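Fold this: Major intrinsic protein domain containing protein
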Amino acid sequence: MKALATSSGGHVNPAVTIGLAAAGKIPPLDALLYVVSQLCGGTVGALFVRGVLSYEQYVSIQGGATLCAPETPWFQGLIAEVLTTMFLVQTVLTTAVDASTVLAPLAIGFTVLMDIMAVGAISGASMNPARSFGPNIVAMVFMHSKIASNFWTLHWIYYVGPIFGALLAAGLYRVFFTKGDRVV
C-alpha cells in the first residue's frame, strides 16, 4: 500500500476509496474509476491464485472465497464487516490522509491485524469488497460443482457491510476529526 501511495494514493480497497470520497478527500469520479479497477484487480489476483495452485489445493481453500463461519447468523457477519471496515477507514482517514505520519502504515496494519483477530472466525474479516468479489467470481467458474452450500447465501454482507462501515467512518470523521469544517 505504501509503495503505491505516491502514484495512486495506495487505493486497493473499494471500501476505503468510498470512505475517502464520502469524506471529501477524493473526487467521486476518481473513486468510481478506482473501485472498478480494484474489482478487476481482485479478479486478476484470484485468477493468479487459481493458476499457481493445483485443483485439489484450490478446492480445499474454496477458491480463497470469503465465507461466514457455519451457523453464523447474517446479522453477526454484517455487524462484523461494518465495524471492522469502520475502524480501518477511520484509521486511514486520521493517520494517512490528514496527518500523513510516517507511522500511518503501522497504524493501518495494526488495525487490520486487530480486526482479523476480532472477527476473522465470524465473517472472515474481509473489509474489502474487491477481496471478496474476485475470488468468488473465479471460484464459480473453476469449481462450480464443488462450492460450499453457503457460498453465495451471505455474500451480500461483504459489499453492504464494508460500504456502510466506510460511510459511517466518513461521517464520524466529518463530525469529529476534520480540521476546518468540523461539525462538533
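The radius of gyration is 17 Å. The mean pLDDT is 90.
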